[in-house]
């Protein structure tokens, strides 16, 4: 089903994409992480301007059905993977920032300066200072929820995605319909709860109409 991830083909296509958590760790059994992933998806769609036709987040991977606009899908995936891993590790307590600034002034270290990660290197924010300050508050809120539930200790391992991802170019209408159904209802394939929230079926405000 998936094209070799090292041989990307870019063009005016719809793509089915699968991305796994490293070592298939089931991070997304935790609702706090799922809710935050939805916020990251909203941000990516806003900043990278792609059409989103379907998605499903499962315990250890996610699927997207997207059509890029001004940038290619590798750049979209780089944004999603980079931001979610960085920010989830803030929520987990691995990436240290000034949470007080994030909560009170909106001048979070993520947005206005460079974020120091666990390897003593820095990563520059690329979503704009104003939008980043808004998003800092979302990160802070999820960090506080995590502390309330799990405490300050490192209850979970550091979050990482697999280095690459799988992609498939949609060939025709039948192929699109098959992958739309596969994506939206993928949680059933993996025996997740029937009322699983984190599928495009429950976030239709994020789903674009088919052209």
Describe this structure in words.
With 211 residues, the protein is α+β, with helices and mostly antiparallel strands. It contains 7 helices and 6 strands. The strands form 2 sheets. A 4-stranded antiparallel beta sheet has the order 2-3-1-6. Strands 4-5 form a two-stranded antiparallel ribbon. Helix 1 runs antiparallel to helix 2. The longest helix is centred in the middle third of the chain and has 22 residues. The protein is globular.
Average pLDDT over all residues: 85
Shape: globular
Judging by the overall fold, what is the CATH architecture? 2-Layer Sandwich
Strand order of the largest sheet: 2-3-1-6
Radius of gyration: 17 Å
Structural class by sheet pairing and helices:
alpha+beta
CATH class: Alpha Beta
End-to-end span in angstroms? 24 Å
SSE layout and pairings?
Layout: E1 15-20, H1 31-48, E2 51-57, E3 61-67, H2 73-92, H3 99-104, H4 109-112, E4 114-116, E5 122-124, H5 129-150, E6 166-169, H6 173-184, H7 186-189
Antiparallel strand pairs: 1-3, 1-6, 2-3, 4-5
Helix pairs in contact: 1-2, 1-5, 2-5
